[in-house]
């Protein structure tokens, strides 16, 4: 199971880097993208019953620091914002409202909360 999580995390980070690179070639009006930085992030269970998954944002942040130390993406630094949803949809929803996080972010890196919210709110 641990290897599977690592593989999925690496795949997700790779896809994110590709999408950031593609977006930077686009419009300057892209939310979360400026001439100096790209803001990405999401909600993760840093505490609560699924806190074992808190290693995922830590690993992602380590990679973004690595990228930033080498000049960033197209000379833009990656700013990674992480909020704790405690693996609870009632806590996740207010964290991802447009005024709180989504409107100032280019991309979300959270696979688990999106699945939880979709399964509970769209059923």
How would you characterize this protein structure?
With 123 residues, this protein is of the alpha/beta class. It has a single domain (2-121), classed as Rossmann fold. The protein is built from four helices and three strands; from the N terminus they run αβαβαβα. It has helices spanning 2-24, 55-69, 89-95, 111-121, and strands spanning 37-44, 77-84, 107-108. The protein has a three-stranded parallel beta sheet with strand order 2-1-3, with helices on one face. Strand 1, helix 2 (55-69) and strand 2 form a beta-alpha-beta unit. The longest helix is centred in the N-terminal third of the chain and has 23 residues, at 2-24. The radius of gyration is 15 Å and the shape is flat. The two termini are 28 Å apart. Mean pLDDT is 75; it is low at 118-123.
Given as residue ranges, the uncertain stretches (5+ residues, pLDDT < 50) are: 118-123
Give the name of the CATH superfamily.
Response regulator
Provide the succession of SSEs: HEHEHEH
CATH fold type: Rossmann fold
* CATH domain class name: Alpha Beta
Structural class: alpha/beta
How far is it from the N-terminal to the C-terminal residue, by CA? 28 Å
Instruction: Please identify, by name, the CATH architecture.
Output: 3-Layer(aba) Sandwich
In which range does the helix fraction lie? 40-55%
DSSP summary, beta strand count: 3
Q: Could you tell me the strand content as a percent range?
A: 5-15%
Mean pLDDT value: 75
């Amino acid at each position: 199971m641990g290897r599977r999580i690592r593989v999925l995390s690496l795949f997700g980070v790779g896809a994110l880097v590709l999408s950031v690179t593609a977006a930077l070639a686009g419009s300057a009006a892209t939310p979360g993208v400026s001439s100096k930085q790209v803001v990405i992030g999401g909600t993760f269970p840093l505490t609560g019953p699924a806190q074992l998954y808190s290693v995922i944002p830590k690993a992602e942040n380590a990679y973004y620091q690595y990228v930033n130390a080498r000049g960033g993406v197209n000379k833009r630094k990656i700013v990674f914002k992480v909020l704790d949803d405690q693996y609870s949809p009632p806590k996740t929803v207010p964290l991802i409202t447009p005024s709180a996080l989504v409107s100032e972010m280019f991309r979300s890196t959270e696979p688990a909360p999106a699945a939880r919210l979709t399964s509970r709110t769209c059923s």
